[in-house]
Specification:
Layout lengths: L2 E2 H8 L2 E4 L5 E2 L1 E3 L13 E4 L12 H6 L4 E4 L11 E4 L3 H13 L5 E6 L4 H12 L5 E3 L9 H6 L8 E5 L8 H8 L3 E4 L13 H9 L7 E3 L2
Parallel strand pairs: 4-5, 5-6, 6-7, 8-10, 8-11, 9-10, 11-12
Antiparallel strand pairs: 1-3, 2-7
Helix pairs in contact: 3-6
């Protein structure tokens, strides 16, 4: 990635606290355990408040490890003068905005995969079949959530010429967010099943929600 803190500030329409030093950003993490120490100064930490953990509790630890750029969704008591804190309404939404901006930098084919089951299997099969012919970026593991998808897309680089990204949803209104990040021009719908059905009024509603991933696709492959 090639961002700086002012880029991030403008993309997220956030409010800057602390320093206005323009740090270069090459890595984005939301888990403090994923910090690679030699790259700490060029790492942006996205503090997400979850049901079990609050990323804001790890900001001081990361600061002392060398991180100087943070996205926060709650205001802190103190701000270090040599670090930048970008305050936003939602850290997850900010991460998605950064990924959507990054996606627009590339014009190569992007395959988007969704369905109730088999997304990761189909993704890996395609990678094995196409890897000799393309330099592929693909979702790591099963990174297909509201957080996993932007982290996958942020791995896209100029050296790639094909992306295979999977997207999963558990309730209505989620897929439109993922579509704006992945923006696939080729779509694959693996199948439909009972997973997360309790959050949808009908199987038809769930199908229509998943199909929103392909609203801008030129080709769609379905059972």
């Amino acid at each position: 990635m090639n961002f700086n803190t002012l880029d991030i500030l403008h993309i997220c329409n956030g409010t800057l606290y602390g320093s206005n030093i323009n740090f270069n950003i090459h890595n984005i993490i939301f888990n403090s355990r994923l910090l690679i120490l030699p790259h700490a100064k060029n790492t942006l930490f996205v503090a997400i408040k979850g049901t079990r953990n609050d990323g804001h509790n790890f900001i001081e630890e990361l600061y002392h490890s060398g991180v100087r750029a943070f996205i926060i969704e709650r205001k802190l008591e103190d701000y270090h003068s040599d670090a930048s804190y970008i305050y936003v309404n939602s850290s997850i939404h900010a991460l998605q905005q950064i990924a959507a901006f990054h996606r627009k930098r590339f014009s190569f084919n992007v395959i988007g995969i969704t369905g109730s089951y088999g997304k990761s299997i189909v993704k890996e099969w395609l990678y094995d079949l196409l890897n000799e012919h393309f330099n592929i970026i693909r979702s790591p593991k099963s990174y297909n959530s509201q957080i996993g998808v932007p982290l996958s897309v942020l791995q896209m680089e100029a050296r790639h010429n094909l992306a295979i990204i999977e997207a999963g949803i558990s309730q209505p209104a989620e897929m439109e967010k993922l579509e704006s990040i992945i923006h696939p021009n080729i779509g694959i719908f693996t199948n439909i099943g009972k997973a997360h059905q309790e959050n949808f009024n009908s199987i038809e509603q769930k199908i229509l929600e998943k199909l929103k991933l392909f609203k801008n696709s030129s080709y769609i492959i379905v059972p």
